[in-house]
Write a structure and sequence with these properties.
476 residues, alpha+beta, Arc Repressor Mutant, subunit A, 3 domains, 15 helices, nucleotide-binding, ATP-binding, asparaginyl-tRNA synthase (glutamine-hydrolyzing) activity
Length: 476
Amino acid sequence: MSAYETVIGLEVHAQLKTKSKIWCSCSTRFGAEPNAHTCPVCTGMPGTLPVLNKRAVEYAVKMSLAVDCTINKRSVFARKNYFYPDLPMGYQISQFELPVAEHGHVVITTSKGEKTIGITRIHMENDAGKNIHSDSENVSFVDLNRAGVPLIEIVSEPDMRSPEEAVAYLKALRAILVYLEICDGNMEEGSFRCDANVSLRPVGQKELGTRTELKNMNSFRNVERALKYEIERQRDMLDDGEKVVQQTRLFDVSKGVTRSMRGKEEANDYRYFPDPDLVPLVFDDQQLEAWKEELPELPRAKKERFMKEYGLSLYDAETLTADKGLAEYFEQAVAAYPQPKKIGNWMMTEMLKELNDTGRDIRACVFEPVHLAKLVKLMDDGLISGKIAKKVFGALFEEGGDPEAYVKEKGMIQISDTSAIEGYVDEVIAENPDEVARFKGGEKKLTGFFVGQVMKKSRGKANPKLVNELLARKMG
């Protein structure tokens, strides 16, 4: 069996979070009735003219700056001609020879360490509509609400060598877009999606192999699955002496396989030419500098700061900065109670579990950062145990509120009175003579049994540290 190297390049489409479409004033709001957000411009009526959305330009430039692209001072819109029912103009207004930006990069982290992935270009274009195929009738419907929603397409260099690297690259791009607040990054709704170009070549060969393009991947998990399947499919073909055909393939999510959709088009198939209705985009240094000054602290810089400022590990810092809302929540909690490691641990375990189970965004969490800080402090002060803290968190995550007031109201304050706990310990020792004898005979694992019995008698309120100390003293 021959040894092959996988080569992957990604074309990422990100819907820009503007209120109106790129060429008209129709709303971009997701989930409206079909064709409710349309007008003569975005439905391609004859005689209509596009007017460029300035905010979309700003967002495209900010993303380009965030990934260290070179901004082209002059860029041109072009008509990309192809015919589908959901493309009402009969062409897409995009950019070809002169995009907004070129030659950037993103640094990713995988199990093998850090790697730089090149970005070939970032260009602007409008989204197409959506075809809806009926299961009960032999008909299809067209919803043009999405037609004209502003997009940026981020085209990578073919620098990725595994599905893991491809997913890490996508996550890095998505994080930057969300940090910039220019895209919501929702893959299920299609506001962040990608096409993957995949090829194999013999190890050591410089020339690229014949590629296929993969579509219909609406989650990071499905991107990974589709790439793994396609790599194996191409490897089997090459081992059998067959030729890989350049084509576009769809990923069948339910079966986990890719299927041929059509022959892959080349640039000349689209018959690009400059759009005669739109003047070139021209940027001046003052405007570019102003947009650059507005860039927030980005994920990579924030991760490095968290490690240096809060003493977090690489894993903890990456987890807490992967989402902007999570990072902001963490910093607010630490400001209220400067114990970053303890607060970080709670967020990465209990908080993320609740968010994932409920499908909520941390920005909508009613359990505020100061409340988490108070909860951790209550544990540190010995007023509640870790077990009780989890119960309090579970209750207040749903309804919000001050944890200190809650534990007092519910009578959950931990017993730290040595004499009271000593009474429970004496009772447990007296009630379990056989276990005491076994413990003194060397079965030290029975410590957990005695602690459990004391906690049961105290209804979970006894300070576990004091319980252990008293048991050790009384039973040697």
